[in-house]
Write a structure and sequence with these properties.
By secondary structure, this protein is of the alpha/beta class. Helices cover 45% and strands 19% of the residues. It contains 13 helices and eleven strands. The strands form three sheets. Strands 5-6-4-9-10-11 form a six-stranded mixed beta sheet, sandwiched between helices. Strands 1-2-3 form a three-stranded parallel beta sheet, with helices on both faces. The chain has a two-stranded antiparallel ribbon with strand order 7-8. Helix 12 links the parallel strand 9 and strand 10. It starts with a helix and ends with a strand.
Length: 310
């Protein structure tokens, strides 16, 4: 409590590990502190937190560790620090500060969403390639986000980014527990899934997005379906409400040896999806032995329309 007060942090004491798991779905604590690792429920909760990319970045500390075996058990499930009874207050405060500093310096996590960044995205794709299972890499990008930012301000824009991150996380967790969600930066996101979950996840994400995003606009802009803005030359344009474009690459008909090729194709499919009206997901259906054609021709070759929400 003294450390928290000195660092302008609020201490919130909870009476169950279940409450902790519920709370991290709504907010990101600066640090989670458990009592002794003799508490089996606390140890398992730490294992759960560290087992998911979205919550693994939250520092976890155990207090009052007297038995070395229990301390080892806490570290095995991913605890970031142990504060023992033989440490003085200054050492405990220093260790807490180092733990928080380390979490804040983690360059592989995007600071605005706390989602894994490019390094972990590439690592996850690499592991899926090596695993030999069918997967889908989905590149999501907001349409007309810059214009929204210019009209409503960066604070509201950050709110939209947070909404998208939450939609992706909640849908992927619900339909593809083995999935992965990452934040490239700005309004660009990546989510990787087992192939069988790709279609339902994309459809659900787009549906929820189109339901929620209009409420980020004023009632007047929302009812009209657009707002009027001028470009740098003074020309007036009608800017539609934001939509979400998702480009998808799978290994159903391809063999990948490096994540860079997956990234290249996902970017291409995302760019193609952005040429389509509304919120859509477009899947690359080309094969390794196909002659190269552009993303548009490849998607239309099988007469399969990209998903477009109403």
């Amino acid at each position: 409590r003294e450390f928290a007060a000195a660092n302008d942090l609020q201490v919130l004491q909870v009476d169950s590990c279940e409450t902790i798991l519920e709370m991290v779905n709504r907010t990101f604590p600066a640090v989670i502190i458990f009592g002794p690792p003799t508490d089996a429920e606390a140890v398992e909760t730490c294992r759960t937190l560290k087992g998911e990319a979205y919550t693994a970045v939250i520092p976890v500390v155990f207090l009052n560790t007297e038995d070395p075996d229990h301390g080892l058990q806490a570290m095995e499930v991913g605890a970031d620090e142990l504060l023992t009874v033989d440490m003085g207050p200054e050492e405990q405060a220093m260790r807490l500060q180092v733990t928080l500093n380390r979490a804040n310096r983690d360059v592989s996590v995007h600071p605005s969403t706390r989602l894994p960044g490019t390094a972990q995205i590439e690592r996850d794709i690499t592991e899926r390639i090596r695993g030999g299972q069918l997967f889908a890499v989905c590149y999501a990008d907001l349409d007309h986000f810059k214009e929204f930012n210019d009209r409503y301000g960066y604070n509201r824009g950050d709110g939209v980014i947070g909404i998208v991150a939450r939609i992706l996380r909640d849908v992927v967790r619900a339909y593809a527990p083995a999935g992965f969600i990452g934040h490239i930066g700005g309004d660009d996101f990546i989510f990787n899934l087992p192939l069988e979950a790709m279609d339902v996840c994309c459809r659900e994400i787009l549906s929820i997005f189109d339901e929620l995003i209009p409420y980020q606009y004023t009632e007047e802009d929302r009812d009209r379906g657009y707002f009027v803005a001028k470009d740098r030359r003074g020309n007036v344009h009608e800017i539609p409400l934001m939509s979400l474009s998702i480009g998808v690459v799978t290994n159903r008909h391809r063999t990948f040896s490096h994540p860079a090729r997956v990234s290249e194709l996902a970017t291409e499919m995302k760019s193609y999806a952005k040429t389509l009206p509304g919120s859509v997901h477009a899947v690359d259906r080309r094969r390794d032995d196909d002659e190269w054609v552009g993303a548009r021709e490849a998607d239309e070759a099988e007469s399969t329309e990209p998903t477009q929400t109403p």
